[in-house]
Amino acid sequence: MPKLTHIDEAKASRIRHTVWFALIAIVVVWFGSIPTLDGNLSLYFSLMLWVTMATSFNIIAGFTGYMPFGYVAFYGVGTYATAILVVNHDISPYIAIPAAGLAGVGLALIFAPTLRLGGIYFAIVSLALAVIMQRIVGLAPEDITGGSHGLNLGQKTERQEGYYAMLLVLVAALTTVTWLARSRLGKALKAIRDDAEAADAMGVNVQRSRLYAWLMSALFGSLCGGVQAWFTGALDPITAFDVLVTAKTVIYAMAGGLATVTGPVVGTVILVWVDELIWREFPVLNNFLLGLIIALLILFMPRGIVGTIMQRFPRMRRLIM
Amino acid sequence: MISEVLLWNAIIGGVVFGAVYALIGCSLNVLAGVLRVINFAHGEFVIAGSFFSYALLNSFDIHPLVALPICAAAFFFAGIGLYYLLVPRLAHSDEPETASFLLMFGVSLMAVSVITWIFEADIRPMNFSFEPINVTLFKIPDAYGPGRDGRVLVPTARLVALVVNLGLIAALTWFFYRTLPGKALRATTMNREAVQIVGINIHRLSAMAFGLATALAGITGVLLALVVPSIDPNGGPDIALVGFIVIVLGGLGHPVGALFAGIIFGFVEQFSNLLLPQAAAQMVGFIILVAVIFVRPEGLFGKGQLK
After folding, report:
1. How far apart are CA B285 and CA B268, in angstroms?
2. What are the residues whose beta carbons fall under 8 Å from the beta carbon of A257, sequence distance 6 or more?
3. How close is the nearest chain B Cα to the Cα of A255, in Å?
4. C-alpha torsion sign, points B209, B212, B215, B216
5. Quick check: A254 contacting B, CB < 8 Å?
6. Is the pLDDT at B49 greater than 90, yes or no?
7. Looking at beta carbons, which pairs linking A306-312 to residues 24 or more positions away fall under 8 Å?
8. CA-CA distances (angstroms) from residue B201 to A93, B176, B185, B192, B255?
9. Please, which pLDDT band fits residue A283 given cuts at 50, 70 and 90?
10. Quick one: closest CA in A to B248, which residue?
């Protein structure tokens, strides 16, 4: 095999990106036309939602190596920020959603000191913080959060607009990770993940790079929550801060392969489809099979589908992002 | 001014629940220390123990105290089986601790659906009581004003559970510090490689540790069904979270530290229930967890031998 020259690699990279953006364009046209074609709006919405969640989770988990097991905190805060603004203050969702994104970033800033913790401590603290958020929201005054009953946006929002907003957030998230993967910041993050001390010695600002990844990840997580509230029109503290939301995000991202751009997308598309199939065919066994899939993935394919392909066939690295 | 009776109830509740939390933390820490497995499914193991005792009581009329050793034996062997099924493969992954966390999350989902499939999703009452139902520990004269004495009552089942529990804690402490397998387990926590050099079969020891932790979880379940006589098939995550708080407080991978931390947490919980509004009381535990991790990540009793 001839050695790759620098120019070859640049060419391959260009081809890779062209194909990838062409695929995104196709998806936009396809998903964008679903409402007019009377497709299954809910299925396509949840597909977009989970692809975005898995992709933004990948920014912190894949590129940076943290495992925020309370990732749902951002999602939940996004849903509540949106709902409170829309229901209590009569603000248009077009303003409420960006505000929800900011709320998520604010929360991430408050949680930023947890980035000092490593490995499993970070995961446990993150989980605890998500539970605390759930309790705070559930126990807040009822005229603000609706207490344990939650809030209802039904009258004030349009489902189809929420669907298009999700498509917009999806494209934004995919563009961001594609940019991140080859940006200076993305390379710094991977260097830090592999060896923080070495990266530091090379002049990478470890703390600031991690913080940027953390904030980006939180931003998209809370945007997802906000758009979800817009689309479904109802929320309560139990479902908005459900551990299962984190779990699904983690599973989808890991199934595809963390630290790759395409991994979370591939993983989500396959598993959401499998999940749908399981729900339809074996409603009783749904959670059992979900658990089984997680266990099998961790045991037999810890690098995920895309990661495993890249490991088995090193030449494919040129074609996959 | 808080009534003296309520104060005593909080103290007794603190000891009773604290001892249960201590057992949960201890078994979690055996796994965390020896195997580097953070068992997300631990709450489900405990609940499986409760249902085990429930099924024995309802189907065969077996007394929960008799169910205790049966449960321990059954869970011990189930744990060893589970070990060989799951854990050796984890060694291949890039980051075993996080991978184990996710793996056991999958196991917990499976366990919940198996439990709800067998027993259905309702909360089950444990129809069992000792004679007499309550024991009066002592009387407080004039607790509710002149001439009206207060009595400090404890359900007999709770008292029995506490006695068994304290006996187990004593036995565990003896096991970890005075027996060869116990010392080997502690040594493995401190240095996995060195233990292999001195000729300990690490796989057999790990399997035994997993069996021990699972058996302890099952026993905790039986005792918990005595302390709180209603079994919630979906209560697993709450139990696991309490367990995480306890092991972090006591030091990750430090079984004896978890025993102390469990009792402390029991007291904190009971007293915040007594002194704070319900909303705030539920959060105290989590706030302590976060605070301890920032101030003393090695735990209150850890000596920093773990990273």
Report:
1. 8
2. A263, A264, A266, A267, A303, A304, A305, A306, A307, A308, A310
3. 12
4. negative
5. yes
6. yes
7. A306/A256, A306/A257, A306/A260, A306/A262, A306/A263, A306/A266, A306/A267, A307/A257, A307/A258, A307/A259, A307/A260, A307/A263, A308/A257, A310/A257, A310/A260
8. 62, 18, 11, 11, 21
9. confident
10. A121
Q: Which of B86, B248, B286 sits opposite A132 (nearest CB)?
A: B286
Terminus-to-terminus CA distance in chain B, angstroms?
A: 45
Q: What is the mean pLDDT of residues A197-212?
A: 90
C-beta atoms of A300 and B89 within 8 A:
yes
**Cα B255 from Cα B14, distance rounded (Å):** 20
Q: What is the pLDDT of residue B307?
A: 35
Chain B residue with minimal CA distance to A68? B98
Q: For residue B90, which residues of chain A lie inside 8 Å, CB to CB?
A: 298-299
What are the structural domains, with CATH classification, of chain B? Answer: 4-295 (1.10.3470)
CB B86 within 8 A of CB A295: yes
**Percentage of chain B with pLDDT > 90?**
21
Task: Return the structure tokens found at A219.
Answer: 């931003």
What is the token pair recorded at B70? 């049966």
* Residue A230, token pair as written in the block: 């817009």
Its ipTM equals: 0.81
Q: Does domain A11-318 have CATH number 2.60.120?
A: no
User: Taking CB atoms and an 8 Å limit, are B283 and A132 in contact across chains?
Assistant: yes
Closest CB to B107: pick one of A124, A136, A291: A291
Chain A hits for B290, Cβ within 8 Å = 125, 128-129, 132
Residue from B241, B297, B236 nearest B269 by CA: B241
Of the pLDDT bands very low, low, confident and very high (cuts 50, 70, 90), residue A136 is: confident
pLDDT in tens, B133-182: 777 777 777 767 777 777 778 888 888 888 898 899 889 889 888 888 88
Least confident of A77-86, A109-118, A206-215, B293-302: B293-302
- What are the structural domain ranges in chain A? 11-318
Render pLDDT for B269-306 as a digit per residue (tens, 0 to 9).
888 888 887 767 777 887 887 788 777 767 776 554 44
Strands (E) in A118-266, as ranges, are 151-152, 234-235
Residues of A whose CB is below 8 A from B28: none
Residue (of A59, A75, A78, A79) closest to A67 by Cα position: A59
Query: What sign for the dihedral angle of Cα A174, A181, A308, B37?
Result: negative
Q: How many residues does chain B have?
A: 307
Closest residue, chain B, to A126 (C-alpha): B290
Q: How many degrees, rounded to 5, is the angle at CA A99 between CA A94 and CA A103?
A: 150
DSSP state, residue B40: T
- Do the beta carbons of residue B284 and residue B266 sit within 8 Å? no
Nearest to residue B26, comparing CAs of B276, B303, B246? B246
Note whether B107 contacts A131, CB cutoff 8 Å: no
pTM: 0.84
Give the closest of B99, B109, B293 to A298, CB-based.
B99
